[in-house]
Amino acid sequence: MSSVAPVDLPVDKDQDTYQEAIAGTKGGRAKKRLTSRTATVAALIIAVLWTIPTFGLLISSFRPAELIQTTGWWTIFQNPGFTLDNYRDVLFSPSQSSPQLGAYFVNSLAIAIPATIFPLVFASMAAYAFAWIRFRGSGWLFVFIFALQIVPIQMALVPLLQTFAIWLRPGQEWIHEVIPVIPVQNYLPLWIAHTIFALPLTIFLLHNFISEIPGDVIEAARVDGASHTQIFLRIILPLATPAIASVAIFQFLWVWNDLLVALIFSGGTQDVAPLTQRLAEMVGSRGQDWQRLTAGAFVSLIVPLIVFFSLQRYFVRGLLAGSTKG
What we know:
It is a single chain. The protein has 326 residues and is an all-alpha fold. Helix content is 70%, strand content 0%. The protein has 2 domains: 14-83, no CATH class; 103-319, MetI-like fold, CATH 1.10.3720. The chain is globular, with a radius of gyration of 26 Å.
Protein backbone atom coordinates (compact mmCIF):
# COMPACT_ATOMS: atom_id res chain seq x y z
CA MET A 1 0.00 0.00 0.00
CA SER A 2 1.60 3.21 -1.12
CA SER A 3 1.32 6.58 0.63
CA VAL A 4 0.97 9.89 -1.09
CA ALA A 5 3.01 12.81 0.17
CA PRO A 6 1.01 15.94 0.99
CA VAL A 7 1.15 18.60 -1.65
CA ASP A 8 1.40 22.27 -0.64
CA LEU A 9 -1.42 24.35 -2.01
CA PRO A 10 -0.37 27.29 -4.16
CA VAL A 11 -0.45 30.67 -2.46
CA ASP A 12 -2.07 33.56 -4.25
CA LYS A 13 0.72 36.08 -3.82
CA ASP A 14 -1.13 38.74 -5.77
CA GLN A 15 -4.05 38.55 -3.34
CA ASP A 16 -1.69 38.78 -0.35
CA THR A 17 0.07 41.74 -1.90
CA TYR A 18 -3.30 43.43 -2.49
CA GLN A 19 -4.37 42.88 1.11
CA GLU A 20 -1.07 44.27 2.39
CA ALA A 21 -1.45 47.31 0.14
CA ILE A 22 -4.97 47.92 1.44
CA ALA A 23 -3.82 47.53 5.05
CA GLY A 24 -1.06 50.07 4.41
CA THR A 25 -3.43 52.85 3.40
CA LYS A 26 -5.05 55.25 5.84
CA GLY A 27 -8.45 53.71 5.24
CA GLY A 28 -7.06 50.22 5.82
CA ARG A 29 -5.40 51.22 9.08
CA ALA A 30 -8.58 52.94 10.25
CA LYS A 31 -10.67 49.91 9.31
CA LYS A 32 -8.25 47.62 11.16
CA ARG A 33 -8.49 49.72 14.32
CA LEU A 34 -12.28 49.96 14.14
CA THR A 35 -12.71 46.21 13.62
CA SER A 36 -10.24 45.12 16.32
CA ARG A 37 -11.33 43.10 19.33
CA THR A 38 -10.79 46.05 21.68
CA ALA A 39 -13.00 48.30 19.58
CA THR A 40 -15.70 45.62 19.47
CA VAL A 41 -15.68 45.19 23.24
CA ALA A 42 -15.78 48.96 23.76
CA ALA A 43 -18.70 49.28 21.35
CA LEU A 44 -20.61 46.53 23.17
CA ILE A 45 -20.03 48.21 26.54
CA ILE A 46 -21.23 51.58 25.21
CA ALA A 47 -24.28 49.92 23.63
CA VAL A 48 -25.21 48.22 26.91
CA LEU A 49 -24.77 51.40 28.96
CA TRP A 50 -26.82 53.33 26.40
CA THR A 51 -29.58 50.70 26.33
CA ILE A 52 -30.08 50.25 30.09
CA PRO A 53 -31.96 53.56 30.65
CA THR A 54 -34.12 52.90 27.57
CA PHE A 55 -34.89 49.41 28.83
CA GLY A 56 -35.85 50.84 32.22
CA LEU A 57 -38.13 53.36 30.52
CA LEU A 58 -39.78 50.54 28.55
CA ILE A 59 -40.48 48.54 31.71
CA SER A 60 -41.83 51.64 33.48
CA SER A 61 -44.24 52.29 30.61
CA PHE A 62 -46.02 48.99 31.42
CA ARG A 63 -46.12 49.43 35.21
CA PRO A 64 -49.02 50.89 37.19
CA ALA A 65 -48.69 54.43 38.51
CA GLU A 66 -48.52 53.35 42.18
CA LEU A 67 -45.61 50.99 41.52
CA ILE A 68 -43.75 53.57 39.44
CA GLN A 69 -44.02 56.15 42.23
CA THR A 70 -42.99 53.78 45.03
CA THR A 71 -40.50 51.33 43.49
CA GLY A 72 -37.80 51.35 40.83
CA TRP A 73 -38.02 49.52 37.54
CA TRP A 74 -35.14 47.25 38.55
CA THR A 75 -37.38 45.74 41.27
CA ILE A 76 -39.75 44.33 38.67
CA PHE A 77 -39.21 40.77 39.90
CA GLN A 78 -39.73 41.72 43.55
CA ASN A 79 -42.72 43.96 42.77
CA PRO A 80 -44.32 42.52 39.64
CA GLY A 81 -47.12 44.34 37.93
CA PHE A 82 -47.97 45.10 34.33
CA THR A 83 -50.73 47.17 32.79
CA LEU A 84 -51.68 48.79 29.49
CA ASP A 85 -53.45 51.72 31.14
CA ASN A 86 -50.56 54.08 30.41
CA TYR A 87 -50.73 53.44 26.68
CA ARG A 88 -54.53 53.51 26.80
CA ASP A 89 -54.48 56.95 28.43
CA VAL A 90 -51.92 58.24 25.96
CA LEU A 91 -53.53 56.92 22.78
CA PHE A 92 -57.25 56.78 23.48
CA SER A 93 -58.01 59.15 26.35
CA PRO A 94 -60.75 61.63 25.37
CA SER A 95 -60.16 63.97 28.31
CA GLN A 96 -58.76 67.47 27.90
CA SER A 97 -56.08 66.84 30.52
CA SER A 98 -54.66 63.96 28.49
CA PRO A 99 -55.72 64.34 24.85
CA GLN A 100 -54.89 61.77 22.23
CA LEU A 101 -51.54 61.96 20.48
CA GLY A 102 -52.90 61.45 16.96
CA ALA A 103 -53.19 65.15 16.13
CA TYR A 104 -49.71 65.80 17.49
CA PHE A 105 -48.35 62.97 15.36
CA VAL A 106 -49.76 64.68 12.29
CA ASN A 107 -48.28 68.01 13.36
CA SER A 108 -44.84 66.47 13.90
CA LEU A 109 -44.95 64.84 10.47
CA ALA A 110 -46.13 68.08 8.86
CA ILE A 111 -43.17 69.85 10.47
CA ALA A 112 -40.43 67.23 10.16
CA ILE A 113 -40.91 66.08 6.56
CA PRO A 114 -40.75 69.55 4.88
CA ALA A 115 -38.09 70.69 7.36
CA THR A 116 -35.98 67.75 6.17
CA ILE A 117 -36.64 68.08 2.44
CA PHE A 118 -36.09 71.85 2.18
CA PRO A 119 -32.53 71.97 3.61
CA LEU A 120 -31.53 68.86 1.65
CA VAL A 121 -32.68 70.42 -1.63
CA PHE A 122 -30.96 73.76 -1.02
CA ALA A 123 -27.85 72.23 0.54
CA SER A 124 -27.31 69.69 -2.26
CA MET A 125 -27.48 72.42 -4.90
CA ALA A 126 -25.16 74.67 -2.90
CA ALA A 127 -22.73 71.81 -2.26
CA TYR A 128 -22.54 71.06 -5.98
CA ALA A 129 -21.96 74.74 -6.76
CA PHE A 130 -19.14 75.02 -4.22
CA ALA A 131 -17.55 71.76 -5.37
CA TRP A 132 -17.71 71.98 -9.17
CA ILE A 133 -18.64 75.55 -10.18
CA ARG A 134 -15.79 78.03 -9.93
CA PHE A 135 -16.74 81.62 -9.22
CA ARG A 136 -15.07 84.54 -7.50
CA GLY A 137 -15.18 84.34 -3.72
CA SER A 138 -16.50 80.79 -3.59
CA GLY A 139 -13.87 79.72 -1.07
CA TRP A 140 -14.53 82.61 1.31
CA LEU A 141 -18.28 82.17 0.96
CA PHE A 142 -17.99 78.47 1.81
CA VAL A 143 -15.89 79.28 4.88
CA PHE A 144 -18.47 81.88 5.94
CA ILE A 145 -21.34 79.40 5.61
CA PHE A 146 -19.39 76.77 7.52
CA ALA A 147 -18.58 79.30 10.27
CA LEU A 148 -22.31 79.93 10.79
CA GLN A 149 -22.40 76.65 12.73
CA ILE A 150 -20.83 78.38 15.72
CA VAL A 151 -23.74 80.84 15.99
CA PRO A 152 -26.01 79.65 18.84
CA ILE A 153 -29.60 79.04 17.89
CA GLN A 154 -30.76 81.15 20.82
CA MET A 155 -29.19 84.27 19.30
CA ALA A 156 -31.32 83.95 16.15
CA LEU A 157 -34.67 83.34 17.85
CA VAL A 158 -35.60 86.98 18.54
CA PRO A 159 -34.57 88.32 15.07
CA LEU A 160 -36.49 85.50 13.40
CA LEU A 161 -39.56 86.18 15.52
CA GLN A 162 -39.45 89.86 14.54
CA THR A 163 -39.08 88.93 10.86
CA PHE A 164 -41.96 86.47 10.97
CA ALA A 165 -44.14 89.00 12.78
CA ILE A 166 -43.75 91.34 9.78
CA TRP A 167 -43.81 88.87 6.89
CA LEU A 168 -46.30 86.34 8.22
CA ARG A 169 -48.63 88.54 10.24
CA PRO A 170 -52.35 87.69 10.14
CA GLY A 171 -54.18 89.23 7.23
CA GLN A 172 -51.73 88.23 4.54
CA GLU A 173 -53.66 85.65 2.55
CA TRP A 174 -51.17 85.19 -0.28
CA ILE A 175 -49.75 82.08 1.35
CA HIS A 176 -53.14 80.38 1.46
CA GLU A 177 -53.69 81.21 -2.19
CA VAL A 178 -50.43 79.45 -3.13
CA ILE A 179 -50.96 76.27 -1.08
CA PRO A 180 -54.51 76.15 0.34
CA VAL A 181 -54.43 72.49 1.40
CA ILE A 182 -52.86 72.83 4.86
CA PRO A 183 -52.43 75.81 7.22
CA VAL A 184 -49.08 76.75 5.69
CA GLN A 185 -49.01 80.10 7.46
CA ASN A 186 -48.86 78.27 10.80
CA TYR A 187 -46.16 75.79 9.81
CA LEU A 188 -44.05 78.14 7.68
CA PRO A 189 -42.11 79.74 10.58
CA LEU A 190 -41.08 76.28 11.79
CA TRP A 191 -40.04 75.18 8.29
CA ILE A 192 -37.98 78.32 7.72
CA ALA A 193 -36.34 78.17 11.14
CA HIS A 194 -35.33 74.50 10.86
CA THR A 195 -34.09 75.05 7.30
CA ILE A 196 -31.94 78.02 8.30
CA PHE A 197 -30.42 76.23 11.27
CA ALA A 198 -29.68 73.07 9.25
CA LEU A 199 -28.14 74.60 6.12
CA PRO A 200 -24.55 75.29 7.34
CA LEU A 201 -23.81 71.76 8.53
CA THR A 202 -25.78 70.13 5.72
CA ILE A 203 -23.90 72.09 3.04
CA PHE A 204 -20.59 71.20 4.65
CA LEU A 205 -21.32 67.47 4.86
CA LEU A 206 -22.71 67.17 1.33
CA HIS A 207 -19.87 69.28 -0.08
CA ASN A 208 -17.30 66.88 1.37
CA PHE A 209 -19.01 63.95 -0.33
CA ILE A 210 -19.79 65.59 -3.68
CA SER A 211 -16.27 67.00 -4.00
CA GLU A 212 -14.87 63.44 -3.84
CA ILE A 213 -16.77 62.35 -6.95
CA PRO A 214 -14.16 61.67 -9.68
CA GLY A 215 -13.62 64.71 -11.84
CA ASP A 216 -13.39 62.55 -14.96
CA VAL A 217 -17.09 61.80 -14.66
CA ILE A 218 -17.98 65.49 -14.52
CA GLU A 219 -15.64 66.37 -17.37
CA ALA A 220 -17.02 63.57 -19.55
CA ALA A 221 -20.53 64.89 -19.00
CA ARG A 222 -19.43 68.41 -19.90
CA VAL A 223 -17.76 67.18 -23.09
CA ASP A 224 -21.02 65.48 -24.05
CA GLY A 225 -22.75 68.85 -23.71
CA ALA A 226 -24.53 68.31 -20.39
CA SER A 227 -25.53 71.44 -18.51
CA HIS A 228 -25.05 71.95 -14.78
CA THR A 229 -28.69 71.04 -14.21
CA GLN A 230 -28.32 67.77 -16.11
CA ILE A 231 -25.06 66.93 -14.33
CA PHE A 232 -26.64 67.65 -10.96
CA LEU A 233 -29.81 65.65 -11.57
CA ARG A 234 -28.38 62.69 -13.51
CA ILE A 235 -24.91 62.27 -11.99
CA ILE A 236 -24.52 64.05 -8.67
CA LEU A 237 -27.81 63.09 -7.02
CA PRO A 238 -27.59 59.34 -7.81
CA LEU A 239 -23.97 59.16 -6.66
CA ALA A 240 -24.63 61.26 -3.54
CA THR A 241 -27.67 59.25 -2.43
CA PRO A 242 -25.86 57.62 0.56
CA ALA A 243 -24.68 60.99 1.86
CA ILE A 244 -28.08 62.61 1.32
CA ALA A 245 -29.81 59.73 3.12
CA SER A 246 -27.38 59.97 6.05
CA VAL A 247 -27.95 63.70 6.43
CA ALA A 248 -31.71 63.17 6.03
CA ILE A 249 -31.71 60.77 8.99
CA PHE A 250 -29.90 63.24 11.23
CA GLN A 251 -32.06 66.18 10.15
CA PHE A 252 -35.34 64.29 10.53
CA LEU A 253 -34.41 63.01 13.99
CA TRP A 254 -33.28 66.47 15.07
CA VAL A 255 -36.52 68.10 13.92
CA TRP A 256 -38.70 65.28 15.26
CA ASN A 257 -37.10 65.51 18.72
CA ASP A 258 -36.90 69.31 18.79
CA LEU A 259 -38.70 71.21 21.53
CA LEU A 260 -37.05 74.64 21.68
CA VAL A 261 -37.86 75.76 18.13
CA ALA A 262 -41.34 74.24 18.41
CA LEU A 263 -42.12 76.16 21.59
CA ILE A 264 -40.87 79.46 20.13
CA PHE A 265 -42.34 79.38 16.63
CA SER A 266 -45.50 77.35 17.08
CA GLY A 267 -47.08 80.16 19.06
CA GLY A 268 -48.24 77.75 21.76
CA THR A 269 -51.28 76.77 19.68
CA GLN A 270 -52.48 73.19 19.64
CA ASP A 271 -53.07 73.32 15.87
CA VAL A 272 -49.33 73.21 15.10
CA ALA A 273 -47.89 71.87 18.37
CA PRO A 274 -45.60 68.88 17.71
CA LEU A 275 -45.42 65.67 19.66
CA THR A 276 -42.51 66.82 21.82
CA GLN A 277 -44.50 69.78 23.09
CA ARG A 278 -47.35 67.50 24.14
CA LEU A 279 -44.93 65.08 25.82
CA ALA A 280 -43.50 67.93 27.88
CA GLU A 281 -47.02 68.80 29.06
CA MET A 282 -48.09 65.21 29.65
CA VAL A 283 -46.10 64.81 32.85
CA GLY A 284 -48.45 67.17 34.67
CA SER A 285 -47.99 70.50 36.40
CA ARG A 286 -46.13 68.93 39.33
CA GLY A 287 -44.72 65.85 37.63
CA GLN A 288 -47.32 63.58 39.15
CA ASP A 289 -48.32 61.85 35.89
CA TRP A 290 -44.93 60.93 34.52
CA GLN A 291 -46.06 57.32 33.96
CA ARG A 292 -47.86 58.70 30.91
CA LEU A 293 -44.62 60.25 29.75
CA THR A 294 -42.92 56.84 29.65
CA ALA A 295 -45.64 55.46 27.38
CA GLY A 296 -45.78 58.60 25.24
CA ALA A 297 -42.01 58.50 24.78
CA PHE A 298 -42.13 55.02 23.29
CA VAL A 299 -45.05 55.98 21.07
CA SER A 300 -42.95 58.86 19.72
CA LEU A 301 -40.10 56.43 18.92
CA ILE A 302 -42.11 54.60 16.25
CA VAL A 303 -41.55 57.04 13.39
CA PRO A 304 -37.80 57.65 14.01
CA LEU A 305 -37.21 53.90 14.13
CA ILE A 306 -39.06 53.42 10.84
CA VAL A 307 -37.03 56.19 9.20
CA PHE A 308 -33.71 54.89 10.51
CA PHE A 309 -34.23 51.24 9.54
CA SER A 310 -35.61 52.23 6.13
CA LEU A 311 -32.47 54.24 5.32
CA GLN A 312 -29.98 52.18 7.33
CA ARG A 313 -28.10 50.76 4.35
CA TYR A 314 -27.64 54.25 2.90
CA PHE A 315 -26.65 55.51 6.34
CA VAL A 316 -23.81 53.00 6.66
CA ARG A 317 -22.58 53.70 3.13
CA GLY A 318 -22.67 57.44 3.80
CA LEU A 319 -20.63 57.11 6.97
CA LEU A 320 -18.03 54.93 5.24
CA ALA A 321 -17.79 57.14 2.17
CA GLY A 322 -14.16 58.06 1.60
CA SER A 323 -12.87 55.80 4.40
CA THR A 324 -10.95 53.60 1.95
CA LYS A 325 -9.27 56.49 0.24
CA GLY A 326 -5.52 56.36 0.75
